[in-house]
Amino acid sequence: MTAPETTVLSFVRHAHSPYVPNAERTRGLSRRGRRDAARVTAHLADVADVVVTSPYERARATVEGVADAADVPLVVDEDLRERELTDDHVEDFDSAVEHLWANPTASHPGGESHAEAQSRGVAAIERLVEAYPNRHVVVGTHGTLMALVLNAYDSRYGYEFWTGLTMPDVYEATFVNGEFAGVARTWVPADDEQPAADD
User: Fold this and answer.
1) Whole domain around residue 99: which residue ranges?
2) Taking the model in full, what pTM does it have?
3) What angle do CA 15, 16, 22 make, to 5 degrees?
4) How many structural domains is the chain composed of?
5) By C-alpha distance, which of 143, 112, 125, 114 is closest to 180?
6) Which residues, 6+ apart, have CB-to-CB distance to 56 below 8 Å?
7) Is residue 195 in some structural domain?
């Protein structure tokens, strides 16, 4: 009897990054974020077979140390980028995001709907599961996209889950023969890590 193919994905929500207007792709980590990225490296370096990351600097900077420490490839995947909220400044971020969770096909001017972001995120994950059978893949990404992807497999991962994520955070999803088999949090936050429900 053939053994099942199992792929494990450790989704890493990026470490703390100070908000900078119009710098979604380039804003990096804060001092605290760099410290926590080192903890992410210690947490995942022993299990990583490959690291795949969003192109956004804050996500890449959170997981690139894992690739270096484990001496494994670091691959950039554009489809792991954060959901594009809008092409302009939002006065009330929390209300704007809550509206999208309640209305998945809605979008703000110049932005993506949650349905659109979820679709591309799930497509990226399915490619990884197919490409890396029996491997442990570290996935550097963002809070909203991670929540949307997990929500596609299990509806319990929705708005309330998103609001409780910390920066960083790590959730491990298991796929057996290409099918989602479950997810569990593996990150233990430091005492000063509080839920940080921003992008």
Assistant:
1) 6-185
2) 0.92
3) 110
4) 1
5) 125
6) 14, 24, 25, 26, 81, 82, 142
7) no
CA distance 158 to 1: 38
Q: Is residue 84 part of a domain?
A: yes
The pLDDT value recorded for residue 19 is: 82
Assigned domain for 197 exists = no
Evaluate whether residue 193 is within a structural domain: no
Label residues 5-28 b or e (16+ Cβ within 10 Å = b).
Answer: eebbbbbbbbbbbeeeeeebeebb
Please report, in tens digits, the pLDDT of each residue of the chain (199 residues total). Answer: 688 999 999 999 999 998 877 777 889 999 999 999 999 999 999 999 999 999 999 999 999 999 999 999 999 999 999 988 776 666 777 888 888 888 899 888 778 989 999 999 999 999 999 999 999 999 999 999 999 999 999 999 999 999 999 999 999 999 999 999 999 999 998 766 555 555 5
Structure tokens, 21: 């207007």
Cis status of the peptide bond prior to 109, with omega within 30 of 0: no
CATH number of domain containing 134: 3.40.50.1240
Whether the Cβ atoms of residue 59 and residue 141 lie closer than 8 Å to each other: yes
Contacts of 141 (CB under 8 A, 6+ apart): 11, 12, 13, 14, 53, 54, 59, 80, 82, 121
From 170, 174, 172, 176, select the one nearest 190 (Cα to Cα): 170
